[in-house]
Please model this.
Amino acid sequence: MSSQRIAAFVLGAWIMGSLFMIFVATQNFQTADAFANAEAHAVGREMAGRLNQLFFVDWERTELLLGIVFVALAWLGVQRVWLGGISTATLALVAMQHLLVTPRMLSLSQHLDNAAMAGEFGRLHAMYGISEVLKLVLLFALAAILLPAWRGRVRSTVQVQAIDYADHGHIDR
Model:
């Protein structure tokens, strides 16, 4: 299997996983918001937040693995400069989220009753959301670079054998 095909598969998994995590996070909070009782609503939102923390930490670890594989394929297998550069930047963004933003958000989430800490948590959460959107833009840019090249390569490998019937004088049936 070619490195471009493997890279396309890894990129597809990365994009789908990212979109799925957005869906999961919003669904967790929408489910908690469905509780009419104020106490149940607060407990539901806290539970949704804790689940999202768990899911996002695990997803970030998976993203780091997918990103490392994709960067290696981009630089060593596919050998396209734009693909390698953008994939490296995307991996760096995920590493920043996982190593800097998420741990701080996790520590602040225990103290959201403190206004200053809640404000910092809000700023970090906004930063995380913006970096998620940027990451998706970069992932789709990678797809735009990788997939046309892959499709063009597939087309160029198909060989058509044409017969010039004018030179043969007749058609064999």
